[in-house]
Amino acid sequence: MRTETPQTIRLEDYRPSDHLIDRVDLDIRLAPHDTRVSATLAVRPNPAGVPGAPLVLDGDELTLLGLALDGQALPADAFAASPGGLTLHAPPQRPFTLTVETQIDPTANTKLMGLYRSGGVYCTQCEADGFRRITYFLDRPDVLSVYTTRIEADREEAPVLLGNGDPGEAGAVPGTGRHFAVWHDPHPKPAYLFALVGGRLDRVSAPFTTMEGRAVTVAVYVEPGKGPRADYALDAVLRSMRWDEAAFGRPYDLAVFNVVAVSDFNMGAMENKGLNIFNDKYVLADPETATDTDYANIEAVIAHEYFHNWSGNRVTCRDWFQLCLKEGLTVFRDQEFSSDMRSRAVHRIGEVRTLRARQFPEDAGPLAHPVRPRAYAEINNFYTATVYEKGAEIVRMIRTLLGPAAFRAGMDRYFSENDGRAATVEDFLSAFAAESGRDLSAFARWYERPGTPRVSAAGSHDAQTGRYTLSLRQSLPGGDGAPLVIPVALGLVGAAGPLEATCERVRDGVFVLEAASDTITFAGVAEPPVPSLFRGFSAPVRLEMDLGDAERLTLLRHDTDPFNRWQAAQSVAMRLILDRATARAQEAEGAEGAEGAEEAGPAAAAYAAALGAFLDAEALADPAFAALVLGLPGEGDVANEMGRDVDPDAIHRARQALRRHLGRSLRGRLDPLRAALAPAAGAPFSPDAASAGRRALANAALDLLGIADPEAGTQAAEAQLAAATNMTDRLAALSVLAQIPGPARERALEAFGERYADEPLVLDKWFALQATIPEAGTLERIARLRRHPAFAMTNPNRVRALIGSFGLGNPTQFARADGAGFALLAETVEALDRVNPQIAAKLLTTFGSWRMLEPARSSRAGEILSRMQARPGLSRDVTDILARTLA
Ligand code: PHE
Ligand code: ZN
């Protein structure tokens, strides 16, 4: 248990290491409780450091067994050692070797940082600071070393031994039942990219030849018997490798590329050099167990980790404040890959939905921080939607501002100037500045300012002159007033289609808002236009513009930009829900039964009619897009839009009412649509985007049927559940049933739970589905499921599925007025903190928006958080989140 009081680390305090470590030779003898690590470090003074400084190595829960300098044992007064560090008081001021022997217990390691065992497989996780749990080291990303690793283990227990880089010598250790393998990684890397794996694993593999003609063996390792479920991931690796060559000119640089799936993993996956280690959720897939969303996520995460080989590994980060340098950039790269593999428009809408659902609330609450934070107490708490998703939006804005050619040239320059280095955000921006000749210093404010900027827009049309004037004003609450550089992709749309208007300040469809406010004028505008602003979501801002529903529905019909067509429908629905939710909240209860279509009013009717017309015209041409247009903003989106005095029950009722109205209005279309989208009998399953899109729309129709006509919906869902040939359709049917209380639901849930009793990843979907039922009985259901044999606090996926989904996806029950939902979360965080502080802290961030709630609910949340803060013995991870959440 960590007991240190949190210490704040600041960007402004950065200074280079006093020592460097050029080479690391590791000899790791794996054993369940008594693993021995012998590390030989080639150390030298750093010319950029302080001469004669002590050598201060990081450690965490280590037992020191031996220490030698240039082969000589050190006298006891020459060093100080504890589980948390090793200091040489007066190291030689010349190159020397230090040999350190440590002992660790991988079986006891439930934090899943450092070396641990997952389902009997030895594996490591070293980002951000896990390597110090293996051996004493300069565990900071600007110390780059060449690693040679000898791994030894029992032959039966761990027939497969994997390390970073390329394989070398391997063989038996005579007379012991043990064997070894040596791996050598020629590319200097920081310790956080170190990895090893030892265990009993199945392997699928394929050859790849790089654009430079290098032969590579690509392999994916999974739990025995699951080989066939790794084929999709293997194919995704090969496609990623080809794509990074074509899109960014980046070839692979070793003879092997290995991916290993493990079932206990704190995050999604990890980009260790040549040996990516994955949460098995992002590797394993077949039609019986994986949904279309799972396939898409696997493709994206495989690509993400692979792309890190350049954006993260060849060019790494100088310090953890620069985390977005690898993460924002790599998210941007994986988003581009997925857009090329799938439908760009559909993918973009998905990206923005995630950004708004996760990053916007973070940026609006107490955990808000700049994309490049300036201070942290626990770096593991900064792997956030802001660093990742907003970080990716910043890179995308650079491309929008510079255009694709200068952007690509800037990327090439960034890679070549920084190859083999630990770089900064400044290095990144200077590459683009050099290639484009532009000054990006004002743009750089995006990295420094927390909060989501608002842009308000107002237009006026002069029929006489045919001019349209558009005024834009930006604001960032809490900012210092210096404006951001905001690319606004835009166009004008008329009653019958897009307008050909001209404005000299718009280049390639983009106006750059650089001042606090600005006004631009379009000529040749014969009719009053509807402006289509932030096409493709060209900047991560909130747009405020007083458009009427009729104008928005014109955009839905006629805009050339698919993102803004979707956005138009969302905006209309948002206003309808907001109006109703706020009216309801003021009414003070008692209106339970009166939610019928008859109450809906002309605005909701016009919305439903527009969606009906849209479906008739386009549903079958682009089902994936149509499914998105039919979807309403989430309850969380509505809460964020309100910003204060949030009553989740009122939002839930208002949103349900609009869904019901939409379902009833479209009722006559739903069955024919489902029939038209059904696959031909006997057609084989394909996870491709077009097939997934047809399933998405058919299931959106089923969902509307379920709310419009629960009886017919139940029947249809039961029939689909019985006939489904894939997990997407089965889970969609089960989700519809889950929303309709009654015996059919309980029967279906029970049967599903039994059928997949031995499939933990499928049970996760089942846990999450039940945890998000918006009914009072859900708390009891969760209590029951916590005792399910498959549930375990030691497995992050299980905890996220059952408890995380509750906190994130069940606003009415999590934020119950009686505080019971908050209490459930808090109890879980406290219990989990003793097992896995990182996951406990992550779970605690579900309280991030507590101040937005109406006073009764927010004071419940505040009390529970304060009570937790008073408990002794909390981890640094949880202490840090608590302090910031309550600040
Ligand atoms: N670097 C990993 C990724 O984004 C995320 C990660 C961070 C994994 C810390 C484990 C621990 O690809
Ligand atoms: Zn990453």
TrEMBL record:
GO terms for molecular function: alanyl aminopeptidase activity; metallopeptidase activity; zinc ion binding. Keywords: Aminopeptidase, Hydrolase, Metal-binding, Metalloprotease, Protease, Zinc. Residues 232-445 form the Peptidase M1 membrane alanine aminopeptidase domain. InterPro entries: Aminopeptidase_N-like_N, Aminopeptidase_N-like_N_sf, PepN_Ig-like_sf, Peptidase_M1, Peptidase_M1_dom, Peptidase_M1_pepN, Peptidase_M1_pepN_C, Peptidase_M1_pepN_C_sf. Residues 451-545 form the Peptidase M1 alanyl aminopeptidase Ig-like fold domain. Belongs to the peptidase M1 family. This is Aminopeptidase N. The lineage of its organism: Bacteria, Pseudomonadati, Pseudomonadota, Alphaproteobacteria, Hyphomicrobiales.
